[in-house]
Amino acid sequence: MLAELSPALIAEVKLAAKLLAAKQHICILTGAGISAESGIPTFRDKQTGLWENYGVEDLATPEAFTRDPKLVWSWYQWRRQLVADKAPNPAHHALAQWQYHAQTSDQQVTLITQNVDDLHEQAGSSVTHLHGHLWRNRCGQCQTPSQDQPRTSYDNRNTMSFDEALLTCPHCGGYIRPDIVWFGEALPIQAWQIAEEAAANCEVFISIGTSSLVYPAAGLAQLAKQNGAKIIEINPDPTPNTIVDITLAEKAGVILPLLIEEITAL
Ligand code: APR
Bound how, and how many: what does the cofactor note say (predicted)? Predict the structure, then answer.
């Protein structure tokens, strides 16, 4: 499989594998790009990116939901339909395999994602979500999680209703919203603590499939670097991330199975 890559990229994969196999504390941050090969659109890729075709300010801010809850709810119900039948790709599976392998070695592989899909979980990974969960709802007013909504957990994916009619909270009558972090909102405290701690204490930080444009998540690589970590980036396209030590410029679904195969063989 390595033979399918250019000699320069093969050398970089081997270098990254050697570095990773020698270290104990690894922190991985994934973004929309890791789910792209599963058929889920990213946000900022030209033509196909969601924010290339829809207005962030109309759909992914608390102000938008206050202004037009029906529009926002309908859009997220459409996104749920889009994602419902999608399955993990080789990149998700490779990371899950690595975490499984790490249980019997000295390594601690902490996986943090900006994604709201559940493909890491479906692949068997243990993952911390920084930007919430597409398949969970909560009240937009009193913030109570909607336990009675379909698909509040990851295993009842077949019972999800994609109805566009607005739902109201049984406690306060407020409109139900997806449990997703919108622009201008704070990240979940516990998830952010896990991410900051893992980034600050890791020896290698791997950024996968993210444009590194959205903070505070994009700042995790800088935090890791300041604390002495090496930075690896897996992304077929360049990003503004200037602190990268090893760039693996290919799709995550191509690189990760090879990289993890190399690491676990060393
Ligand atoms: N493998 C790896 N990377 C890929 C692949 C792939 N197969 N396909 C695309 N990419 C890269 C793109 O080159 C791009 O740099 O994935 C990145 C996706 O970037 P964005 O669309 O900006 O997604 P992300 O960085 O996750 O966005 C961050 O923005 O709108 C918010 O909350 C949303 O969590 C999201 C946040």
Answer: Binds 1 zinc ion per subunit.
